[in-house]
Amino acid sequence: MIQNGDIEGLKAALLNLRKDLKKEIDFSKENISALSTRLTGSSEQVVRHDEEQVSKTQQASCDCVDIMSQYENLMMAFKREKSENMILRKEFHELRKRHAFEIGNVSEKFINMDSRLNNAEKTLRSEIETIKNENMAQLRSEINTIKDETIAEFQEMKKQPDFEIGNTSEKCYKVETRLKSVEKTLRSDIDNIKKETMAINHRYAACQTYINNTRSNFNDVIIHLNESLMNRSLLALQEISRITSDTANLKTSNEILKSKTDMLIRHLRPFLPKSCDSEVKSGEYTIYPDAFPQGVKVYCYLDSTNKGWIVIHRRKDGSVDFNRTWADYKAGFGNLSGEFWLGNQHIYQLTEDKPRQLRIDMEMFNGTKRYALYSGFKISSESEKYKLHLSGYTGDAEDCLLTACFNSIDGSTLHNGRLFSTFDRDNDQTYGCCACYYAGGWWFDNCFSAHLNGKYFKKKESVTYGNGIQWYTITRGNTSLKFVQMSMR
């Protein structure tokens, strides 16, 4: 027979086993909770650290913008050094782009690495939670099973007060054996949980070390890039300062040189050429008429009698487009040795300076040459729209400027006294726009008897009636001149 003391001892042993098991489970929960807290804290530190790095990077970027603004303001102050300053400005922009690109690459790598670490952290937490849930569920299930079976057997024993000692002892032995087996299994499971927890702790420590090393490397790279950018910015500022100083010195030197040049020109003015009369061959020269005390570069043409003429216009090969704006015709365009228009403002100043003659030389593709000579020539100022003034025709081309050419293109047209017109400044005498339709600026009437700035047509090109370089008595509106040159003296 089993004594009451044996049963009480068995109950006490089972109770102690349950207490030990509860302590082990609580210990495991504490370890898991601590590990989760450390992971959460580590993630928050990573986020705070990243925000600080972004703030520092933004501050560095703001500093670069301030430097760039100072750089641009300094450059705009010195127009004469514009070319050299623009080159430096482009280099400075490239410097900023390179560093922004390098920092962007490093930041992108760090963000990718941080993302991988976050994924690893989530995986660890998931594994821990899975292990905890599986083991706790298994432990609870086994404990409940043992508890239910023990209670059932104990109740059964209570119902049979007179069962034989042998059977009872055997049952107690089985219960004890089974409890020991369960205890061994539980302790083995607890040991496994401890080992897995330690492994997780090691993995976490390794991850934390990797994070710290990566942060340290990232900080070193950022510091290096900032130092490099600062050094290059300082070099750029020093170069700007040098250029600014050189520009100021150059400006002073230019002012001194200009003053001396003006003084020299005043002393030499009586000996400087005012026209092309003193030149011995055709070519480009600088003359010093009263209207241009600093001199103006012109092309001097010597005719068959060795008289010098200032060329104001030439057409010979179609290399220059003469369908230009009012501003272009005012300033002039082209190449003095090739096709060009000297410029209405220059022509006005030269004809205002003294009375001038105008000579127009023309040549057809068949070799026929003609000329027109006007003894009086000038144009008014821009405020009067460069009005044309001519008088005294001679020559063999027949006059198409002072009088209307016979059977002119648009009826009876006179050019003398007319205003200059371009496609963007229509001053002609028709309801339409002659410069828009026939192309090129000219002293249009309704529309022209002569138009020397029309489109250039080469020898074999078909000429639309009225287009091209026209002098009606020669071209008749259906051909175009090969060569024309306007000169004055």
Explain what this protein looks like in three dimensions.
Residues 11-38 form a coiled coil. One of its GO terms (molecular function) is protein-macromolecule adaptor activity. It is found in: Secreted. This is Fibrinogen C-terminal domain-containing protein. Residues 267-489 form the Fibrinogen C-terminal domain. This protein is an alpha+beta fold and 489 residues long. It contains 7 helices and 11 strands. The chain has helices at residues 4-76, 82-159, 165-268, 326-331, 344-353, 434-438, 472-475; strands spanning 283-287, 296-302, 308-315, 333-334, 340-341, 356-363, 369-379, 388-395, 450-451, 470-471, 483-488. Strands 1, 2, 3, 4, 5, 6, 7, 8 and 11 form a 9-stranded antiparallel β-sheet that branches. Strands 9-10 form a two-stranded antiparallel ribbon. Helix 1 (4-76) packs antiparallel against helix 2 and helix 2 packs antiparallel against helix 3. It is rod-shaped, with a radius of gyration of 52 Å. The N and C termini lie far apart (152 Å). The model is unreliable at 56-65 (pLDDT under 50).
